[in-house]
Design goal:
By secondary structure, the chain is of the alpha/beta class. It has 18 helices and 10 strands. Strand 1 (91-95) and strand 2 (102-106) form a beta hairpin. The longest helix has 29 residues, at 25-53.
């Protein structure tokens, strides 16, 4: 195609400059002027053609090259990387946009295992074949209310190789749980109905195009704390069987205090919150629930909807048993204390990376301090005005620890010594 283009251009030039005795030298110069423009345009087009036809060249923003861990550069500063790029004798960079393979050689070759998501195709019935990325999401964050799931989500979403769900909290398996159970119940055609459900969940809650096209995406995740309270985790296991679960738990008394602090500020403006005002009506109602349910718990009774009870939310041992029927600790389920996230956030991030299987990443300390600070921020980063104000008396706090301690011991029996004795008056004094 290029040869035909060149021949046509040369023929046009010859025709333009054809000798004629009636044309003066000035006329020749004037008539040849467009030729120079044609040659310049031809040179530019040829240069563009050569560049774009190259199979081993991709234009990468400088900031992305320095920031992205996918290129596996091991340099402390920009200057040392510049020197390597400008002196390629001992180093070689080959970036292919077609194979999405990224290599970098300096004395020894470093190879990056390119992220890969298997495409899953299944029959949804009526000759309808659905295709979507398998193992979407790679993991789900769950936990009790006020246990630090939002802080964990906010930090992880800054990882360059992680892609969160398109919705902040999808609530797919709790709000729609009974409808999903009906759609995938046992019976004829369950295999096809399960195919359609898996496709619906993946495409409704994740950017599946980006998952397949962005080579930096190595894992996907969503966060919905209330999944911890669903009736049967088998529902999640059926729809996304290879997805891992990360559960984060907090000292139940501190969790109750945080829940109370949030409730006391409901319905108030940011200005009122910063002025120290509280919603006395909601505060009194909350504390009345706590006192009444404490008496019920001491007598071995439970409220009708204990999942919504502020006090019974802290009885983790009763809830986690049903999860352990379908998920194995350390293999498909990781349980973390919120206190570890607060005290050693980078260590917890590394633990999650190793558990899920994506590269470790050094998160900025300022980011983790912001998300784990006593004064929380809203999703847009602005101060929400909430602070860790104490509304529980010392007497009630002591009673609550007496109530929770036996259940905490049973939880440690299930989860291991990591949870033994980590919650109590002394650890949170």
């Amino acid at each position: 195609m290029q040869n035909q283009w060149t021949k046509s251009l040369i023929a046009s030039c010859k025709k333009h400059l054809k000798h004629s005795p009636n044309i003066t030298m000035r006329d020749k110069r004037e008539r040849s002027t467009p030729l120079y423009l044609i040659l310049v345009v031809y040179a530019l087009i040829s240069a563009v053609w050569i560049i774009t036809s190259s199979r081993h060249l991709e234009i990468i923003p400088w900031e992305k090259l320095l920031r992205s861990r996918s290129y596996n550069f091991e340099y402390e500063d920009e200057e040392s990387l510049v020197n390597t790029l400008m002196n390629p004798k001992n180093s070689r960079i080959s970036i292919s946009s077609h194979t999405r393979a990224h290599e970098f050689n300096k004395e020894k070759e470093h190879a990056l295992k390119t992220p890969h998501f298997d495409m899953h195709s299944c029959d949804a019935g009526n000759n309808d074949t659905l295709t979507f990325p398998w193992k979407t999401p790679t993991f789900i964050i769950i936990g009790q209310h006020k246990c630090g799931t939002t802080a964990l989500y906010s930090i992880l979403r800054e990882h360059p190789n992680l892609l969160p769900s398109t919705k902040f909290e999808p609530h797919y398996f709790d709000f729609k749980g009974k409808y999903i159970e009906e759609r995938i119940k046992e019976g004829p055609g369950r295999k096809e109905r399960l195919c359609a459900e898996r496709y619906r969940y993946a495409t409704d809650n994740f950017d599946t195009d980006q998952i397949m096209e962005d080579p930096n995406v190595m894992a996907t995740f969503e966060k919905t704390p209330s999944y911890f309270d669903i009736n049967d985790p088998a529902l999640i296991k059926s729809v996304v069987p290879d997805t891992k679960i990360i559960l984060i738990l907090r000292d139940p008394v501190e969790r109750l205090q945080s829940h109370l602090s949030m409730t006391a500020l409901e319905g108030l403006s940011i200005k009122e919150k910063k002025a120290g005002k509280v919603n006395e009506e909601k505060l009194d109602k909350f504390l009345n629930h706590v006192y009444r349910h404490k008496k019920m718990a001491l007598h071995g009774k439970r409220p009708k909807d204990r999942r919504r009870s502020p006090l019974f939310r802290g009885l983790y041992e009763q809830r986690i048993k049903k999860w352990l029927k379908y998920y194995e600790l350390g293999e498909s389920m990781l349980v973390l204390p919120y206190e570890d996230l607060r005290n050693e956030p980078q260590h917890v991030m590394d633990e999650i990376a190793d558990f899920v299987g994506f590269p470790r990443y050094d998160f900025p300390s300022a980011l983790m301090e912001k998300d784990l600070s006593p004064t929380r921020r809203s999703r847009d980063g602005k101060l929400s005005g909430r602070k860790a104000t104490t509304y529980i008396s010392d007497e009630l706090r002591a009673d609550l620890y007496d109530l929770y301690t036996p259940f905490n011991d049973k939880l440690a029996d299930l989860l291991g010594e990591r949870f033994r004795g980590i919650w109590g008056p002394k650890t949170n004094a």
